[in-house]
Specification:
Helix content is about 45%, strand content about 15%. It is an alpha/beta fold. It is globular and about 50 Å long.
């Protein structure tokens, strides 16, 4: 691999939906027919889409994207055969793109959940044979939090490997009609899902039980940056036996910068977690509906954070956390 520039942005939160994979998750009933693609965006494995993606990366100063499926597009089929077929297909296609452009793309392994034994097999194949750098877990599987006990074998294996887990919302509005009945699943529900997975991990003591895992939560952690003191005051009263204050555990996680350009949100996360626990993310290609790819990262320089912390967020945290330095 060629030596990378220190100034390169690594986008930890980028989506990619090859056509064959879209068709597989549609056949499996994960999404409705025609519901997997993001029309109008460079999102598929069509050659013109790949070249457009590379052009946008160059314009934005992004040297490398880490690929994973977007909301509701993980291969979580109830039928095990269909789930395994979709997961293997998606991971193989991701691996081929990485092999073609090893300096431009890496990928997280997608698992055929809720099928644990099959997921462990695919986890090992993805990390050991395909060379992926971690795993992707959507925050819920058929409305079950991935912090629940049935998923512990995944955490045990990732802990053994000192592995990286990147979480992503499913898009179910935390199963609440107060979100879904008002069509807030995207605008509000995703941030609620981010918040909930952080709280579930803390409540289930997963970081303490599996201390070798690196946990990455998207969208600046949802509401977590604003709740740290309240969690220490009230959460601990209900959750007995926590090994440390919730705020301490929350600061052990890493968070990406997807914030729709909100200076207030980034400032809050920076004050809560520190620049060394924030890394670049774009939600590519979702935010292209609202801003250019270049703008997704340019606004971070305009928030007013210390220059050294901006450099830490954009250039230094990701190579260290992802072990790509």
């Amino acid at each position: 691999m060629q030596e990378r520039s220190q100034a390169m942005i690594i986008d930890v939160h980028a989506h990619y939906h090859p056509r064959a994979y879209n068709e597989a998750i549609e056949r499996a009933g994960v999404v409705r027919p025609g519901g997997a693609s993001m029309a109008g965006h460079p999102d598929t494995d069509d050659e013109d889409h790949i070249q457009k993606r590379l052009e946008l990366m160059a314009q934005a100063g992004v040297g490398l994207q880490v690929l994973s499926p977007a909301a509701s597009r993980a291969p979580y089929a109830k039928d095990e055969t269909a789930a395994v077929e979709a997961a293997k297909l998606g991971n193989d296609i991701y691996a081929r793109l990485v092999a073609r452009y090893p300096d431009k793309f890496k990928a997280f392994v997608s698992l055929p959940l809720p099928h644990i034994d099959a997921s462990l097999r695919e986890l090992r194949r993805g990390l050991d044979e395909l060379g992926m750098i971690g795993i992707n877990l959507h925050i819920s599987v058929h409305d079950r939090s991935v912090a629940e006990d049935e998923f512990l074998p995944i955490y045990e294996e990732m802990n053994r490997r000192h592995g990286i887990i990147f979480y992503h919302p499913w898009g179910n509005g935390i199963c609440s009609p107060m979100i879904t009945d008002y069509s807030f699943s995207g605008a509000v529900g995703t941030s609620m899902e981010d918040t909930v997975i952080a709280l579930h991990l803390i409540a289930k003591k997963i970081p303490a039980r599996f201390p070798n895992i690196t946990f990455i939560i998207p969208h600046l952690g949802g509401l977590i940056p604003m709740l740290l003191q309240r969690l220490d005051n009230q959460f601990s009263m209900r959750q007995r036996g926590l090994p440390e204050p919730p705020s301490v555990t929350a600061r052990r996680f890493y968070y990406d910068t997807v914030g729709h350009g909100s200076h207030a949100a980034l400032t809050c996360a920076w004050k809560a977690f520190g620049a060394d626990h924030i890394l670049p993310g774009s939600d590519f290609p979702v935010l292209l509906s609202f801003e250019t790819y270049e703008r997704t990262f340019a606004w971070i320089r305009e928030v007013g954070l210390p220059a050294a912390d901006v450099e830490q967020i954009l250039e230094r945290t990701a190579p260290s956390v992802l072990r790509l330095g």
